[in-house]
Amino acid sequence: MNVTSVTSEDGVKEYEKIVVEPEEIEYVEIASDAKVVDLTRHRLKEIGDYSWLTHVEQFYLRWNLIKKIENLDCLTTLTHLEFYDNQIAKVENLDALVNLEVLDLSFNRIMKIENLEKLTKLKTLYFVHNKITKIEGLDMLTELEYLELGDNRITKIENLDNNLKLDRLFLGANQIRNIENLEHLKNLTVLSLPANAITVVDNVAGLTKLKEIYLAQNGIKYFFGLDENLPLEILDLNQNRLEKVENIHQLSTLTDFWARGNKLSDWNILDELIRLPQLSCVYLDNNPIADSDTYRGKVVRFLPQIHRLDGTQCREKSILRPPKIEKTAVETAAVEFEHPTEESQVV
């Protein structure tokens, strides 16, 4: 918009002219045989006609102003589709995209997981930061391996009975109170539940492939069921209400133990940690035991296997080298004989 003011010779404004210019239009050239189309940050308000894209496999529509999913029926070659950070309120008009493997609908205004039944090849699904209150609509997604539902309004873990291939499940920043209905997910290796309302850790013993569990910023006071058969490598209990830690010494594969910002005042925790042969990284700061002047030295001395404490290096990892073997007199003579001097060659 341009504004022009016209004044007379004595300085009195006579009139003001306002010229409204059309929005600047940005043109993007896309080849008809393109396999990857990236329209990130183009301030698109709607999805136009892309029927001429006959080979597209990856379509990125991140950071736009799109309110409705539409006009995608002809893009059946798509395997990867992203609508991250738009204004979409409803999951719809995706039935034709039967080859889709990755779908990202994070940072939108979606209230319900629905209309995904035809996407049976879907392996990765993101719904971060929406308004979802219930886990549902995933029954037909039997190939799903990665599910991200963080930062929603979910109160219960449920309706994952058919998603037996789930490998990574992210449910952080919701309103979940209990860890439940997961025992059938035998392939789960990562379970992330930070910033919920969990007070007791239980019902994870049956997850026999679980390697990482993230439980920071809950209200956890107790935990059970960390069975010795769990192949846990990372246990995150940061910023909870733990007063003591017991029965983790059987986690022989544990490499990372994070428990900063709790109420740990009992040095007996070191009796548990010293029995973990693979332990490498420990966080215990912002606990009562860390107020002691001798805290760091004591932890490093009692846990000779760790290399990082509270985010800083506490000892160098050992570097193994083969021992240096000195040559014997016989070996030296043999070498000299193989490379005779000029004098020794004279007859």
UniProtKB/TrEMBL annotation:
The keyword Nucleus applies. GO terms for cellular component: nucleus. It is found in: Nucleus. The keyword Thylakoid does not apply. It comes from the Eukaryota. It holds the Pfam family LRR_4. This is Uncharacterized protein. It comes from Caenorhabditis remanei.
